[in-house]
Amino acid sequence: MSQVPEAGRGTVTPVRVVIALCLVAPFVAMLWVGSYAKTDPEFAGIPFFYWYQMLWVVIATALTMIAYKLWQRDQRARREGPGR
């Protein structure tokens, strides 16, 4: 069984902070109901309450994709790290 060094596993880097923000932002936006619990402005006859939530579906998808790509790049950089 190989031993994985524990030194770099829990390191907080700026990239990991950005990843966390990308993943947390949709939750914060949806849990803050007071910011979108209204009907105006309407978009194409759809009340704000509904189109705001549907917009966040698209935004959350994009943020999740960004977080995934950043995570892949971070993991690749760690494997190729300074020791190799």
TrEMBL record:
This is DUF3311 domain-containing protein. The lineage of its organism: Bacteria, Bacillati, Actinomycetota, Actinomycetes, Kitasatosporales. The chain crosses the membrane at residues 17-37, 49-71. PANTHER family: BSL5891 PROTEIN. Keywords: Membrane, Transmembrane, Transmembrane helix. It comes from Streptomyces dysideae. Pfam families: DUF3311 (PF11755). Coiled coil: none annotated. InterPro entries: DUF3311.
